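mind reviewing this fold:
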Amino acid sequence: MGRVLVSPLNWGLGHATRDIPVIRELLKNGHEVTVAATGSALLALRREFPDVAWIDAPDYTAPYGTGNHLLPRIVWNLPGLYRELAAERRCISRILAKDRYDLILSDNRLGMYSESVPSLFITHQLHFHFPPVIWPVEITALLLNRLLHGKYARIIVPDNPPGPAALAGKLSRPILRSSMEHCFFTGILATAEKRDLAEDLDYLFIISGPEPQRTLFEQIVLPRLPDLPGRKVVLLGSPGKGATTVPDPETTVIGYADTEEKIALLNRAKFIVCRSGYTTMMELAEVQKRNALLVPTPGQTEQEYLAAYYRERGWFFSQEQGRLDLVSDIKKAEGFAGFPAMPETAGNVRRLYREVLAPYVE
């Protein structure tokens, strides 16, 4: 059976998390998997798959700060990003010089490909979103994206095909009709699954995303929890962090939950407060949760777009982090409909393996 190198980006846990069902499907079909990642992404996958080989493969410095001005930081960091991308190319060369692989799966790591090994790229962002006043930047990013994606044999898009059920909206819509042939739309890929559990948890808070915004979100939420009646659980989304205590006997704070624990919490929760990160949105769709409040990461244009898109469609209410009022915003969020029904991960990942991955590794 084939050997597969899986390499997710370490900007938050979302990329690593959505790769879990793909890795499981590969292992179930008898393939050997090696994870090449760094930081929290590597730690999370090592916890999930303790017997899988791993390589610490550094990626790019996340361009997030404490404010909302992401684009200037991206422009300022371009020289450093170029150096890190060059280092990533050297990293994959060293990996392939040491071991043989039949397939590379890169989740949003632009340099993890090879001319000699079939390489597939996983992303839901075929189309970037920027404010209308800087539309030339968006056009330039689209063209650059298309150029970089051309380095890969196929693009795996974890979303429904373009249309009213597309979870990522315009983000997963190819720039050209001809690009559709290069893309494979899997449908959602989530580690969560719908289970028949009693909803005995009033609130679940998922504190996720890249630093320092993850910590800022935590610092905003924790002091306000006593304002909410009922049982609450807070997931900090930080594998290296232990449990934290808060002055509220009805609140439990967990540094990091493994997949089984998180699935149970998602199903048990009556209401969820979380980022509008795409992987988290796929989890909400999978467990068919309607009651949720979305708080996009400040300055992260993708999350801000998704939050506005879902609010416009009547799916979920959202609020800016700096204006968050838990009691008031949760009340507003209760009138929204949630995501429409869509195909589940179990069937989606089997189809992905059968139609895309298997020809390379069997």
Observations:
- The chain has a mean pLDDT of 89.
